[in-house]
Amino acid sequence: MESEKVDNERRAMRWGLTCDKGECQERISKNGKEVFEVCKFKPTIKQVEDNTVDSNPCHYYMQKYDALVSKHSLWNYHAFFTIMKFNKKLFEEYLDRKITVFDEAHKIEDQIIQFVGFDIFSGQVEECNLNSEKYDFTDLDSMIKLTDDMAYSYAKKIKDIKESPAFQNDPDYELITGLERRHDRSAQAKIDIMSDKDNFVVNDPIKDLNGNFRTISVKPIDVSKFANSFFETEYQLFMSATIDKSSFCENMGLQKDDVAFVDTQKSPFSIDHRTVNLLNIKRLSYGSTEEDEIEVIKTIDRIMDEHSNERGLILTSSIPRCQKIIRYLSPKNTSRIRLCHSKNKDGKTQDEVISEHASDPTGVLLSSSLWEGVDLKDDLSRFQIIAKVPYPNYTEKRTRAKMNKFPLWYTSQTLTKILQGFGRSIRSDDDWAKTYVLDTAVNNVFFKGQQMIPKAYYDVLGMDDN
Ligand code: SF4
Q: What is the SS3 assignment for 439?
């Protein structure tokens, strides 16, 4: 696949890389009749397959159909799962493959969850002329009633608009299509939840500063029932440095006997290049004393002094904890810190912060979100400090419900994140970095999750191979 980043919009338009129209297929009125009109740039998949596309085709569809007709193709999770969820029938003949390889398989649950359950936004409730105060946002039955009322309201709106003289004179099909989509989603959400009520949980609503409802999500606790519809080839290969067979099979609804597990015995990287020092400074939790917290931060200060000429990374569990660390570090070390979240206050992206870091020879990234998916190779980071064990967010109702139903899941999520964190700064054979873990609670995670630790980590954790 190709991709281009173009800052100049006009040039991008000239190259055919943007779409200022946005409706690939729209309903329009022709001679008083409702007809579908397809964007003139949109090729058919058959044309792409037969190589008979007209000149100047839509770049997006060329990429997508090219991938579908090719023997092998590489997709991001969202694009692939969108097809598997919504367009499987449409592309049936192109999806008939022998094998699918899922990279970073420890993140699959987070991807699947985006395609099951549903989110309701305040704008939709208002659009349906419903009073949000009439619903109990902690109660599943009340949320089922809300989806039902929304579906009813959308259906009525569509009928009223279609029958109105204004629509008859000058039909706005874009409006109707949007309403129909929202109607179908609300109606489908009700059917999904009703079919397995015990498996759904209502997360706490998100409110604005004035306490008004903004959004709420209803999600399944167990995604295993939905997972198999995303895994349909004869074979699947799930790749990750941090999964274990039992919890993965349980989570994904796979039969253990159907799964062969390859646990690489040794890390390909030398042990001296990826040492882990469990410093056991203090156990950090909600109930930790201020002295304990400060002692951990003073240790961070000391480690930063020891690595005063190098770049590094500090990982912790939340944004408030990042702020607290900054507050107590020495001024010299504070000036080396760059906060890096997925969204940053000054509007900078994660990539922008990391590229600033790359030009600061003693810069240190501080984050609660860089546990995974970031590549700090070579001297982008020579030391990493795990200040606090990253438990899943226990204040989220789904996390609590899932933990109660699948106790091992909570440990496995925490362990995966810690082990992913270990790998941020050692990216190749000749790369190296020192890792320091300060929170004593890590021992508990390793103890509870000892069966789940991949063998490749045994050496750095001083674990017995037998
Ligand atoms: S087919 Fe392509 S060019 Fe046409 S509206 Fe869709 S995205 Fe835009």
A: strand
